From TrEMBL, chain A:
Domain Anti-sigma K factor RskA C-terminal: 115-218
Signal sequence coordinates: none
PANTHER family given in the database record: ANTI-SIGMA-K FACTOR RSKA
Protein name in the entry: Anti-sigma K factor RskA C-terminal domain-containing protein
GO BP term, example: regulation of translation
Classification lineage: Bacteria, Pseudomonadati, Pseudomonadota, Alphaproteobacteria, Rhodobacterales
Top-level taxon of origin: Bacteria
Example GO molecular function: sigma factor antagonist activity
Originating organism: Rubellimicrobium mesophilum DSM 19309
GO cellular component, one term: plasma membrane
Automatic annotation (TrEMBL), chain B:
SUPFAM superfamilies reported in the protein's UniProt record: Sigma2 domain of RNA polymerase sigma factors, Sigma3 and sigma4 domains of RNA polymerase sigma factors
InterPro entries, alphabetized: RNA_pol_sigma-70-like, RNA_pol_sigma-70_dom, RNA_pol_sigma70_r2, RNA_pol_sigma70_r4_t2, RNA_pol_sigma_r2, RNA_pol_sigma_r3/r4-like, WH-like_DNA-bd_sf
Protein name as annotated: RNA polymerase sigma-70 factor
Residue ranges of domain RNA polymerase sigma-70 region in the record: 25-92
Species this chain originates from: Rubellimicrobium mesophilum DSM 19309
Family statement: Belongs to the sigma-70 factor family. ECF subfamily.
Length: 227, 181
């Protein structure tokens, strides 16, 4: 038995220091050797882990971005990544918009006036039954959205997607707030991908797509305009 | 919310390579673990990376989980906390702020009194930490949630480096006495 661990109080303290990662690498090595052969000491460590873990009890649970689970599965089992949905609708629609000279939309300046957004988009259904205006500030990574026409369907959510050219791959930006106006915080890596891309809305189960890819119909789409 | 027994079952199935068990565990626990990573790292992009790595670790280490009659959440939280703290420490060593600067930044956080008041609404560990000298209680929280080491604690609480270990251990023993064994 190691000379420094004869005293019970000392064991209690060392077990706590092990859990808090306060030991030197040498001490840590000795503790790990001992854990393998000394069930009573193992129990002290378990008890500390359990009690100290309750320091996280008051930390609120926060939904991670929808796409993260897919990224984890991709890392673990790259072969079974869910098939990427092709957005056949969007090049057609965008092409139409560009041809009609409508790529630049008149966007309410009062809505944009809050900061100095870098991008704006008018995400609209083809028949105008749903229109969401969005503006994005790259520095604060705040995507402000305002639903100016239409409604979120009962018992469903609208999920907002960043559609990236040239392959039309999609990544979730989160569920559209049910209120008419709201702010979505965009992750740092996605915040750099707004240029020359588009935003889209799909109808999803409450809480958003369970797969990390759109599962319901794409109901509205709009190109991002650099400001 | 899945029951603790269900979570234990998911871990056991993950150990056998059941991919659907990973999906179930993710659905049941990812928000809690993301909250913890975000609290420790205070940076959303880094917490997102950390959460991915945490679930990769949970998948690979599921076979090492031993049921010990305590909550399986403890194991998940411990893996998440340790991983987030490792990232935080790596970030700190890159930034390598001088000690006096560290102490100054930290002054902006909860005072020990504020921390002690906040703790009173928590479960038993909060009550027990409340019976400690506030500085020691605060130090234990900082070790767990912010990965502070003895050198940082010595600077923060103005305790000589050669006695800081004795100083904190007194608090840890008192805490164990209160929590029971």
């Amino acid at each position: 038995m190691s000379g420094w661990s004869l005293d019970y109080d000392d064991d209690i303290a060392i077990a706590a220091e092990y859990v808090l990662d306060l030991l030197t690498p040498q001490e840590r090595g000795l503790v790990e050797e001992r854990l393998a052969v000394d069930p009573a000491f193992r129990e002290l460590v378990d008890r500390w882990e359990h009690d100290l873990a309750s320091l996280t009890d008051d930390i609120p649970a926060i939904q991670p971005p929808r796409a993260l689970e897919g990224m984890i599965r991709q890392r673990l089992f790259g072969d079974e990544a869910p098939p990427r949905r092709r957005w056949s609708l969007w090049p057609v629609l965008l092409g139409g918009l560009v041809a009609a000279g409508l790529a630049l939309w008149a966007i309410d300046p009062a809505f944009l006036g809050r900061g100095a957004p870098d991008y704006a988009a008018r995400i609209a259904a083809e028949d105008g039954s749903l229109v969401v205006e969005a503006s994005f500030d790259e520095d604060s990574r705040e995507l402000r959205v305002q639903r100016v026409a239409g409604a979120v369907p009962d018992g469903k959510d609208l999920e907002l997607w960043l559609v990236r050219s040239p392959d039309s791959s999609t990544v979730s930006l989160g569920v559209l707030p049910r209120d008419e106006a709201g702010v979505i915080e965009v992750s740092a890596d996605l915040a750099r991908q707004f240029r020359d891309n588009a935003l889209a809305l799909s109808v999803e189960p409450l809480g958003g797509s369970p797969t990390g890819q759109a599962t319901g119909p794409v109901v509205a789409l709009g190109p991002l305009t650099g400001l | 919310m899945a029951s603790l027994n269900e979570i234990e079952g998911m871990i056991a199935r993950m150990a056998m390579g059941d991919r659907s068990a990973l999906a179930s565990l993710y659905a049941a626990t990812s928000a809690k673990l993301f909250g913890i990573a975000l609290r420790v790292l205070d940076d959303r992009a880094e917490a997102e990376d950390a959460l991915q790595e945490i679930f990769v670790k949970l998948w690979h280490n599921a076979g090492r989980y031993r049921s010990n009659g305590l909550s399986p959440m403890t194991w998940l939280i411990t893996v998440a906390r340790n991983h987030a703290i490792d990232r935080l420490r790596a970030r700190r060593s890159q930034q390598a702020a001088p000690i006096d600067e560290v102490a100054e930044v930290a002054d902006g956080g909860d005072t020990p009194e504020e921390a002690a008041v906040a703790s009173s609404i928590r479960a038993r560990i909060g009550d027990c930490l409340g019976t400690l000298d506030p500085a020691r209680a605060d130090a234990i929280r900082r070790c767990y949630l912010q990965g502070e080491a003895y050198a940082e604690l010595a600077a923060r609480y103005d305790v000589p480096l050669n006695t800081i270990r004795t100083w904190l251990r007194r608090g840890l023993l008192r805490l164990r006495e209160c929590l029971g064994s």
